[in-house]
Amino acid sequence: MATASTVYHYCGAESFLSILRTGRLWVSDARKTNDRRELDWFKDLALKHIAKSAAKGDKVMSDLHLALRVRFELVEDVSDYYVCCFSEKKDSVPQWVAYADRGTGFAIGFDVNALRKKIGAALLSSNYSPVPFGASASGWGFGPVVYAEDGTANTQIDDLMGLIVSAPFEGEDAADSARDYIDRVCAFCKHPDFQTEHEWRIVCNTSLLRKTAGLAGSDMLPDTKWRKGAYGFTPYRETVSVLDCVREVIVGPGNADRDSIEYVKQFLRFSGVEAKVFPSASPYR
Q: 3-state DSSP helix/strand/coil percent for the chain, to nearest 5?
């Protein structure tokens, strides 16, 4: 899979001003996105796949399916992930419509490598085999989203099954290994209906950070903030300043003012950001 060198954060004018003034991006509760299946999609696909193997009389898979259900339903469901979303697409009508005030906003282009270094995250491939959060206690990950279809073979399910088979030979509990892998991929896997977004995302595993901090139950991290979101009251956290990761800004097609480009250039200079500014080439208005 080709790796993008620049990814774009589409936003309205208010968010654009906030990002440029503070230098920080917001990572918000993933369950407050426009995807009702957010965080659950891959878990459901994985459990369904294992259940099919169990239905064929495979006792190992039957025991594993039960153990995973216990872990997800009684012990701890998918981790609480906070996300900030980007797109590989530089000038996308669906992105302008959905995330940039119907074209009157902006798309901020971030250098992928600079951004992942700044937030202290490994750059993940689409199979998510490297452990994105376990190598350190940073809790941060960054990578492309995979769009998995129900009933269709995919790399993530294949890797999961390989992990299940190999775990006992490596002295690990297959159910624990499977649970951790499923949890990890859930942060980066979405329903195929969203595949036109070509999404990348910053992910913060707040469950891991709470455990590291010794917090109990649903206690929030002390730096948690709150905002009114499109889908209700939404908790979020801020990244470190990422202004030096900005490479370009696309001015949305709904900005009809002929001075818009020059105003944005002046604002970037005022904010200390060296970035190219382009008008959208989209005919959308």
A: 40, 20, 35
Is the pTM higher than 0.90? yes
Distance between CA 221 and CA 156 in Å, rounded? 31
Residue of 140, 283, 129 whose CA lies nearest to 206:
140
Secondary structure element (H or E) that encloses residue 7, with its range:
strand 6-11
Q: Distance between alpha carbon 119 and the CA centroid of its chain, in Å? A: 13
d(CA 228, CA 235): 9
Per DSSP, the three-state class of 26 is strand
State mean pLDDT over 49-63.
94
Question: Which residues is 126 bridged to in the sheet?
Answer: none
* Residue pair 221/211 in contact by the 8 Å Cβ criterion: no
Tokens of 185: 């991929």
Amino acid at 226: W
Contact 236, 125 (CB under 8 A): no
Tell me the residue type at 3: T
